[in-house]
Structures are given as structure tokens and as C-alpha cells.
Amino acid sequence: MTRKSFETFYYLKDQSVHNVQIIQNEYKNKNGNILLYKGYIRCPECKTAELSFTHKTSLRKAFLSKLPTSEHAEGCSYIHNYASNKKLKDFVGNMNNEKIRERLESALNRLYRSQDTLSLNNQNNNEKNPFILRTNTSTKIMHNCIPRKSLNGWLDREDEGNVYIFYGEVKLKVEEIIRRNSTVSEKPIYKLIIRTYRKKEDQWIDKTNIYRNTIKDDIDENAIYQIAIFGHIEFYKEYPQIKSENLYSIFFREKA
Ligand SMILES: [Zn+2]
Fold first, then answer.
1. At 114, is the pLDDT very low, low, confident or very high (cuts 50, 70, 90)?
2. What is the pLDDT of residues 177-193, one digit of tens each?
């Protein structure tokens, strides 16, 4: 992802958030005609700043960026520059497990809120926006945007190593990792398989997984969960895996 670009957008016509992929599909199917979307794409967070679409080429994927003439609403995390990987890692490293969990839970509340549950007042409060990272130096307070990535979108090689809050509505499955040369005394270790819904096949498919060490999460395989993870992607052969920054930088709840 090019820094300061968007992979999701708020669509004025149906008043919901979508992945840029659907505009790319329209672009492809209609030979470059995206009138359906043009003028109706807004910032996924503040719904105010107007975005423009840049189509995919052989060298880069499609993305959205803010029109220079348009501004984010006050309190939108996208006003600020993205936090660097180092800053994000320090941030998670210095937070206790409970604080990380709270941050991820409030990220989910913000991403999946219904239109009326969050008052504008609340929305515009810098301190309460879970996507704003605040750091104090001796002379000033700095604000940065925490990059986010939908598990329903792309997980690409070019994103490898970058720290995000990954999020999505997913199905989960716990699987034991079979160790080579394992001794009887060792505790079993697990991974959490993340499955996302693919419209084309009308199926839930394995998208990625997360190493959980000896934690065996209590999962209902048929339930749909909302999940948020502070982590980065690493590729094993062609398969993307999410490494959570630590074993507790993950939060999920059953979708209501
Ligand atoms: Zn915005």
C-alpha cells in the first residue's frame, strides 16, 4: 500500500463501506467507465473527504486517494500521517494487554457501528479515536494515524512487514500445529485459521492464519466473528500469515 492511500471507501449511494476492488471490477467490466462511483466516494472514516480512484496497472494495485480540494472532518484519523512501523511496534510493546484489548475493541466499535450509535461529538474527539496514536515528547504532542487493513481485501507481498490493525467479519477455526521432532512433554501449540466469505464462490475460504502458541481459543466454527489484530503479514511460500505483535494483540467477538 502506498502510504496515505485508501483501500476502502464510504459510498454515498448505499451509505456503506466497500473495498476499492469493487470499483476496479466496474472499471474492468465497463472499459474504464466508473460513473456509478465518480463523485460518490468518501473517506471511510469521516465520510466527508472526497476520494478519487486510480486503476490497477501491471505494476500496482488499484487505490483511492483524497482529492486535494477536499478535507477530512475534524477528528478523522486520516488527517494525520501514518505512524511508522517502529512507532507502532513501540506503542504496542509499551501497552499492557488490557489496554491493547480495549483499543482493538473500540476499533471494532468504530468500524462496525450503526449510523446512529456514535454521536458526532464522540466521533470528533481525538482522544477517543482508536485509530489515532498519540505520542508525547518533551516539547510536543504528536498524532499519527494507525493504518488499518481489511481481511476481506488483499493481503499482498508489497504489504509484508508493515504493521496494521487488521480487521474483518470472519469465521474462525482452531488447529493444532504438528511439530516435527516433538517430545511428549511439550505442550500442544495452535494456530487460528481465519476464513473470509467470497461472493464469487458463495463460500467461506481460508484466508490466513495466526500463530497462537499454547493458547487454544474457544471458537464456534459456524459463528461469524468480528476480529481486530495488531500485527503484520509474513509470507510462507505463497501463503500470507499474520503475526500478531504479541499473543494478546488480538480481539474477537461474535457478530451480534
Ligand atoms: Zn476522513
1. low
2. 988 776 667 889 999 99
HEC string for 227-238: EEEEEEEEEECC
Distance 83 CA to ligand 1 centre (A): 16
Which pLDDT score, from 0 to 100, does residue 121 have?
47
Residue 197 Cα to ligand 1 middle (Å): 27
| Ligand 1: centre distance to CA 178 (Å) | 45
56 vs 64, 67, 80, 83, 195, CA distance in Å?
11, 18, 26, 26, 26
Q: Which amino acid is at 35?
A: L
- Rounded Cα gap, residues 96 and 98, in angstroms: 6
Ligand 1 mean position, distance from CA 7 (Å): 13
C-alpha 9 to ligand 1 mean position (Å): 10
pLDDT at 125: 54
Distance 230 CA to ligand 1 centre (A): 21
Instruction: Calculate how far, in angstroms, residue 107's C-alpha sits from the geometric centre of ligand 1.
Output: 15
pLDDT in tens, 115-160: 445 554 455 555 589 999 999 888 999 999 999 999 988 788 888 9
Who's near 157: CB < 8 A, 6+ residues apart?
235
Spell out the domains of the chain, with CATH numbers in brackets.
8-66 (no CATH), 77-145 (no CATH), 149-178+187-254 (2.40.50.140)
